[in-house]
């Protein structure tokens, strides 16, 4: 299974060339390193005077140099002036330890302690700003991201986990690196239980907790999709923001983004579900969105989301045995009148539209576009329009989770 994990993720990374003005350098003697990790750093030629630090953690069978060569973080560091550290495993599996008791406690005898030694070395030798230290990882590295935020909440300001599992989910007591129950998505806990696992890593800590961004593909066959929801439960509970999203949108096709405790890029928890995505979901442009969440892009030319707040959608569903009706109220909350509009949303699986009113719906299943009819094409600022449809269903009577009006993501109420 570990080998499958490596193949799935390793194949996802497209080479990204850093600037020739700087190179990847190994650092030795960086401090307490109980598991023999290696440390690589990338310091851009235009490094800021008091730079931020990004720790980028590799996948199983990978290495720090692989993570450097296969992701965009070094080229983005050239643009924004932060430093990147790439920890590298030396054990035979090349997977990070996220399962042993020593990994799941602060200042233990495994990988997390060595990674934090790297951070402290950077603070001492490169003048890194201790208030701007971030971590991201892929697969095994995503699991480590969860672990580092639990073990060292006072070191990291935010993390981003791409195809990972919650803190403590991979815990084992027999020395094994692999937890099949967790990988298969069968370890289900209450938010309180997940939160208690995090708090037990650093007993007595009462300070601020880092923000968390979570990515997962719905078709992940290595670390299965239920781990996405379990991570949301864990970090919303730890950060005290509840389970109900503050906003839901679709920043690009097949992505559903929910934010908890806030609606902008500084929300305490942000979760991106990629419909149809497998385990290797890391793709071009994702690194820039991760840096947006961290606040490291500072107005650069990173991909921009559709403008938030341009529309508001309210939905009600009335369902019976095999049918339902759905009423949708669309409000133009933007500054300009719309002369013609279309609303895009995705129906839950098994729902099929049979008829509609006040809009033309096409197609009848999957991602649907509802277009205006002649008598309601104009939608001035502050105005609303009611549309709706009747549909059959095979059991799922839920609402669409996100809507976009003329390409702009809507707030769902």
From TrEMBL:
Residue segments, region Disordered: 242-262
InterPro entries: AB_hydrolase_fold (IPR029058), CBD2 (IPR001919), CBM2/CBM3_carb-bd_dom_sf (IPR008965), CBM2_carb-bd_dom_sf (IPR012291), Esterase_phb (IPR010126), Plant_Biomass_Hydrol_Est (IPR050955)
Compositional bias per record (Polar residues), positions renumbered to this chain: 243-255
Keyword Nuclease: no
Keyword Plastid: no
Pfam families recorded: CBM_2, Esterase_PHB
Annotated ranges, domain CBM2: 304-413
Keywords, sorted A to Z: Hydrolase, Signal
Signal peptide as annotated in the record: 1-21
Coiled coil start-end: none
SUPFAM superfamilies per the UniProt record, alphabetical: alpha/beta-Hydrolases (SSF53474), Carbohydrate-binding domain (SSF49384)
Taxonomic superkingdom: Bacteria
Protein name from the UniProt record: CBM2 domain-containing protein
Organism of provenance: Actinomadura keratinilytica
């Amino acid at each position: 299974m570990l080998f499958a994990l490596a193949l799935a993720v390793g194949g996802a990374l497209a080479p990204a060339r850093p600037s020739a003005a700087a190179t990847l350098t190994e650092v030795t003697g960086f401090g307490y390193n109980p598991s023999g990790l290696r440390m690589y750093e990338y310091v851009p030629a235009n490094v800021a005077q008091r730079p931020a630090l990004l720790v980028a953690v590799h996948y199983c069978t990978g290495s720090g140099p692989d993570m450097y060569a296969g992701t965009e973080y070094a080229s983005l560091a050239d643009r924004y002036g932060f430093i990147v550290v790439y920890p590298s495993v030396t054990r035979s599996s090349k997977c990070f330890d996220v399962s042993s008791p020593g990994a799941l406690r602060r200042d233990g005898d495994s990988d997390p302690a060595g990674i934090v030694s790297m951070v402290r070395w950077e603070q001492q030798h490169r003048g890194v700003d201790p208030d701007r230290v971030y971590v991201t990882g892929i697969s095994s590295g995503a699991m480590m991201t969860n672990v580092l935020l639990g073990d060292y909440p006072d070191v990291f300001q935010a993390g981003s986990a791409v195809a990972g599992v919650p803190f403590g989910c991979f815990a084992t007591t027999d020395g094994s690196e692999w937890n099949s129950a967790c990988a298969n998505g069968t370890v289900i806990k209450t938010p309180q239980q997940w939160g208690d696992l995090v708090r037990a890593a650093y007993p007595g800590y009462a300070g601020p907790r880092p923000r968390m961004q979570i990515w997962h593909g719905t078709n992940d066959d290595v670390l299965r999709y239920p781990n996405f929801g379990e991570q949301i439960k864990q970090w919303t509970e730890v950060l005290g923001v509840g389970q109900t999203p503050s906003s839901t949108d679709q920043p690009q096709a097949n992505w559903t983004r929910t934010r908890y405790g806030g609606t902008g890029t500084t929300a305490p928890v942000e979760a991106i579900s990629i419909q149809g995505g497998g385990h290797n979901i890391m793709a071009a442009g994702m690194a820039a969105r991760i840096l947006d969440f961290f606040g490291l892009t500072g107005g650069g030319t990173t991909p921009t989301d559709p403008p938030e707040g341009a529309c508001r959608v309210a939905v009600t569903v009335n369902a019976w045995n095999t049918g339902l009706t759905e009423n949708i109220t669309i409000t133009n909350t933007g500054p300009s009148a719309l002369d013609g509009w279309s609303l895009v949303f995705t129906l839950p699986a098994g729902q099929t539209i049979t008829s509609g009113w006040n809009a033309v719906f096409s197609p009848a299943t999957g991602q649907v576009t509802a277009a205006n009819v002649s008598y309601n094409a104009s939608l001035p600022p502050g105005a609303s329009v009611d549309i709706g449809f009747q549909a059959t269903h095979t059991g799922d009577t839920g609402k669409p989770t996100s809507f976009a009006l003329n390409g702009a993501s809507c707030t769902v109420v």
